Amino acid sequence: MYIQPDLKKRVNKLLNSGKNMGDALGITFTSFKKDEVKATMPVSDNTVQPFGLLHGGASVALAETLSSVGAWLNITVENKMAVGIEINANHLRSVKKGENVKGVSNPVHIGKQTQVWETKIYTADDKLVCTSRCTLAIVNSIE
Fold this sequence. Notes:
seven-stranded mixed sheet
């Protein structure tokens, strides 16, 4: 896993924050940078719809997870966090159970009150599965 050097402290805090939805879906982060966050997700019993294909909701959960983490890594004010306020997704290709997908999220806009991130999800052989855009609000942390 790659971690941009100036983000190591924040990323360690994230990775040690306890269980969350990403754990249930099998999301595994592979890279943390301020301008790009990457992760993989298995197409498994936890991420398929009844016909054995990747569930669109699982793709959206991967996209919002990557976007939220990327936005949080770019917040410079203490006691703030990023929460999704709108997300859309276009599902372009099916993926069968037993395969893996990888997500790559990049910022479109980084502001003090809102951020917009675009996520693309690919098959293991780099075929585009889903493209998503997530708008996030920067709000006070619940801690």
